[in-house]
C-alpha cells in the first residue's frame, strides 16, 4: 500500500511533476513554458491583462512578462497594436496548434483513470481550499 502523505506534500509534488512535464512538452515543440502560457492566454483572450492572468506562473522565477512577450514578438509569433493590445500572427497560431496538441496529450495522461466527476470534485475541492486560505490571509 502506498504511504499516505499530507496534502501539502501531494500538492507540491504534483506541481513539480506538472511543471517538469509541461516544460519538457512545450520545449519539444520549440518554446518555453512561459511562452506557451503567454501565447495561450493571448489566443484565449486578446484583451486579457497579461500581468493579472499570468501572475501565478511568475511567482517563483525571474523571467518577466515583458521578456516573454518581447521574445514572442521577435519570433514573429505576436504583434502589438497602437493601443498596446497583443495579437497572434499566423505563424504564432501554427506554433500554438502544435504545442496545444502536445499539451493535450499530457493533460489526458494527467487525468488517466480519473472519472470526469472525480476530476470535477478534485478541482472544486482544491479551489475551495485556495479560497479558504486566501480569505484567511
UniProtKB/TrEMBL annotation:
InterPro entries per the UniProt record, alphabetical: WH-like_DNA-bd_sf, WH_DNA-bd_sf
Protein name listed in UniProt: MarR family transcriptional regulator
Organism: Nocardia rhizosphaerihabitans
Amino acid at each position: 500500500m502506498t504511504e499516505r502523505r499530507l496534502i501539502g506534500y501531494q500538492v507540491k509534488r504534483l506541481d513539480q511533476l506538472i511543471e517538469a512535464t509541461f516544460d519538457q512538452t512545450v520545449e519539444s515543440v520549440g518554446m518555453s513554458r512561459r511562452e506557451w502560457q503567454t501565447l495561450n492566454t493571448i489566443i484565449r483572450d486578446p484583451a486579457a491583462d497579461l500581468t493579472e492572468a499570468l501572475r501565478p506562473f511568475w511567482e517563483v522565477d525571474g523571467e518577466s512578462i515583458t521578456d516573454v512577450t518581447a521574445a514572442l514578438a521577435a519570433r514573429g509569433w505576436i504583434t502589438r497594436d497602437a493601443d498596446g493590445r497583443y495579437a497572434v500572427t499566423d505563424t504564432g497560431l501554427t506554433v500554438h496548434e502544435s504545442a496545444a496538441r502536445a499539451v493535450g496529450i499530457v493533460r489526458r495522461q494527467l487525468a488517466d483513470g480519473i472519472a470526469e466527476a472525480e476530476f470535477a470534485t478534485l478541482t472544486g475541492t482544491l479551489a475551495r481550499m485556495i479560497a479558504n486560505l486566501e480569505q484567511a490571509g
